[in-house]
Amino acid sequence: MATISLVAGSCGRGRGVEDGRFEFRTNSYFGKDFLASELLSSSFRRAVWYRSKGLKGSGNENGRRFSVVAKIKKGKKHDYPWPDNIDPDIKDGYLTYLSHFKPLDEKPKPVTLPFEKPLVDLEKKIIEVCRMADETGLDFTDQIGALENKYQQALKDLYTHLTPIQRLSIARHPNRPTALDHILNITEKWVELHGDRAGYDDPAMVTGIGTMDGKSYMFIGQQKGRNTKENIFRNFAMPTPHGYRKALRMMKYADHHGLPIITLVDTPGAYADLKSEELGQGEAIAHNLRAMFGLKVPIVTVVVGEGGSGGALAIACPNKLLMLENSVLYVASPEACAAILWKSSKAAPKAAEKLRITAQEHYRRKIADGIIPEPLGGAHADPVWTSQQIRLAITEAMDELTKMDTEELLRHRMLKFRSIGGFQEGKPVEPERKRNMKPSDATMLNAADIESDLEKLKKNILEAEVPSDPITEQAIEKLKQDVDKEVTRAFISMGLQEKLESLKLELSRTTGNQTLNHNLKVKADKLMQEFKQNLSRPGAYLGLKQKLEKLSMVSRLIELKEKGAKLKTEINQKIPPEIKAKLEQLENAQANLSKGDPLDKDLVAEAVKAKKELIEVLKSANLEIVGVVKRKVANAAPELQEKIVSVKKEIDGEIERVINVAGLHGKIEELKAEMAKDSSSPKVEQLQTEIKEGIRASLDDTALKHKVENLRREFASSLEADIDDKVTAENGRW
Q1: Pairing state of beta strands 726-729 and 732-733?
Q2: Of 191, 228, 260, nearest in space to 108 by CA
Q3: How far is CA 176 from CA 170, 171, 225, 371, 681, in A?
Q4: Nearest to 478 by CA among 542, 536, 532, 554
Q5: What are phi and psi of 368, to 5 degrees?
Q6: pLDDT, tens digit (0-9, with 9 covering 90-100), for 452-481
Q7: 726 Cβ partners below 8 Å, 6+ apart?
Q8: Burial 397-424, CB ≥16 within 10 A → b, else e
Q9: Which residue intervals define the domain CoA carboxyltransferase C-terminal in the entry (predicted)?
């Protein structure tokens, strides 16, 4: 390295006047800087001589000569792409000068996934026992061995029964080996190639040439970061169009030079920002898909993490598709799928199961050609071993593919993708196929339908002679099944399904331990409190709320019906036979009266006497008389019933006309919606008052009142009040 500096000082004395001059000296640290040093020296030699006069009062004129020493200062030379002195004896190993990618200075911090917490507890116990052995000097070998065996068994049981969402969390593990980690572990030599030759080098997509067993391969992979800084630099492995065009350039390069292609997939998807769309993200992916089917060299793809949608498929149209044991491949992330179908990303576990995203599911459906095993605990537990398994699988696949000629290779790739899925010939297709998906809002019962069903059910319950009517029971059972389904969907959408399943599992294992049962009761109460809190949100789960209210209303009606039947039986047992006979005479007299027969005055006196005796019987049964009601209109004369129906229709028609004229339909619909949310809210009362006032203001009820009054007088004259009275008790009617 060379530096430039200026040095001034007294270099000597002369006899009279001493000349002051600039002198240039150079220090060259590199041989190749010699020319630059000579140029600077020649330019300084031509500097102007400067003479200074001596100071006043001195016998000799003193002068100073200035000397300039110049050194060229240069920046630090980077060691990429190669250093100045390369060791010619290097055969293999990590060649740091061939890539910016370097091993991390610090070991990554361990990250515990939610389902791994039981293993963490065992690890803490082992560490605690080891610490006690060190502190006390006692022999805990047997205890430590037993805990380690228990840990290994728990680890094996856990990782051999993983759910799809758990495998997804392993595939997204922060410490999972990246594409470059695997490449550097499986190659003897590796040089990274950069740029799409269109203005940018996307760091999310890494490409380069590496050797395995003396053979050269083109490696293309999506690179995630190992920490926050790297993830930001690598854009979380979400390539832009530049990245896919860079991969396409390397594919064409490999095709031209006959290099087999190995692609490593690990991306949540293509980067979907505005700039990427402007640069043609979809076109870049589509171009890659088309180009890969025409490449004349073998292609092997390994899914090492997660493969998201077209962003993964753009480098994954191979002859052989291999997947690590805990890797996933999906068309949409489970969170996005759950948000679309169940309106909540908390239903991701269910979506992950339905999407069939795991390596095992893809292998079963012949999408993946092989599954590469991982160590217990995931690939991050032993990255080197995992990389060697990838190398063995790639080598085996390449040995098979390299035996094919070009035509066989292209046909093999085409048939692989043509065989995915299936179809049937000669079988008629249904014009409309029903899918078992989330019911649309159009097919769900609205408030009016639920109210209509509730009225029918109430009518059936009240008109049934016995409480346990088969038709009513069938309708109630269907309602309970609907409520159960709605509650299950609500638990899933709230993200409480796992807690519920865990609670059920604990309940199935409980014994007579009171402490354990108390803890389970506390957990159940806490879960139900959280469920009710989510359910009470305004505007949420309206269908479930309406069905729950309907079921509650039906349950209350059945309970009242059963109580009424029981009370009626008790009263009938306590009424003397003489009073029952008088009551039968009264019913016969009432029937004759409706036919137009004259009224018997003696019978009226008997009715009054029977009424008093009946009241005394009811009081003796500890029943409080709360009122007396008239007989139903249905027992009136047929002509009178027709008149009542006619007047009722006329009143309904007049009210409907007034509603249309006053424009109250909007408020009525608003009232229905508010009642579906909360029938006891103040807004419901306000809307009811406004609707009633609007009807009264526009309704001319003079003629209607006259007709109703005439009908009342006619009805009163046809029936005697004493005969029509009926005693009621507080808990039911007799």
Answers
A1: antiparallel
A2: 228
A3: 8, 7, 10, 17, 54
A4: 554
A5: -95, 145
A6: 555 565 566 555 555 555 656 677 777 777
A7: 628, 629, 630, 631, 733, 734
A8: bbeebeeeeeeebbeebeebeeeeeeee
A9: 146-400
Distance of alpha carbon 427 from alpha carbon 704, whole angstroms: 67
Q: Which is nearest to 366 in space by CA: 423, 310, 415, 332?
A: 415
Positive or negative CA dihedral for 695, 696, 698, 702? positive
Q: Hey, CA dihedral for 265, 270, 275, 278, is it positive or negative?
A: positive
Please give the single-letter amino acid code of residue 310.
Answer: G
Handedness of CA 459, 462, 465, 469 (dihedral sign): positive
Question: Do the beta carbons of residue 344 and residue 493 sit within 8 Å?
Answer: yes
Token reading at 488:
């299950």
- At 10 the pLDDT is 38
**What is the bridge-based pairing of β-strands 66-70 and 5-8?**
antiparallel
Indicate whether this model's pTM tops 0.70.
Answer: no
Cα gap 338→352, rounded to integer Å: 9
Answer whether 295's CB lies under 8 Å from 261's CB. Answer: yes
Can you read off the two tokens belonging to residue 564?
């009424």
Please, are residues 255 and 297 in contact by the beta-carbon 8 Å criterion?
A: yes
Tell me if 74 sits within 8 A of 2, measured CB to CB: yes
**Closest by CA position to 613, among listed 485, 495, 727, 453:** 727
Spatial separation of the C-alpha atoms in residues 255 and 260, rounded to whole Å: 8
Cβ contact 732:563 at 8 Å: yes
Q: State residue 603's pLDDT score.
A: 65
Contact (Cβ atoms closer than 8 angstroms) between residue 586 and residue 607: yes
Q: Where are the alpha helices (DSSP H) in 236-280?
A: 241-257, 274-278
Q: What is the pLDDT of residues 513-572, one digit of tens each?
A: 555 577 778 888 888 888 888 777 766 777 777 777 777 777 777 777 777 777 777 777
d(CA 149, CA 144): 9
By DSSP bridging, strand 66-70 and strand 24-26 are parallel
In whole angstroms, give the CA distance from residue 164 to residue 328.
Answer: 9
Give every residue of the chain whose pLDDT is below 70, as ranges: 1-100, 424, 428-473, 509-516, 538-539, 574, 582-583, 585-586, 589-604, 606-607, 611, 617-640, 679-680, 700-701, 712-713, 715-734
**Residue-level pLDDT at 478:** 76
The pLDDT value given to residue 717 = 61
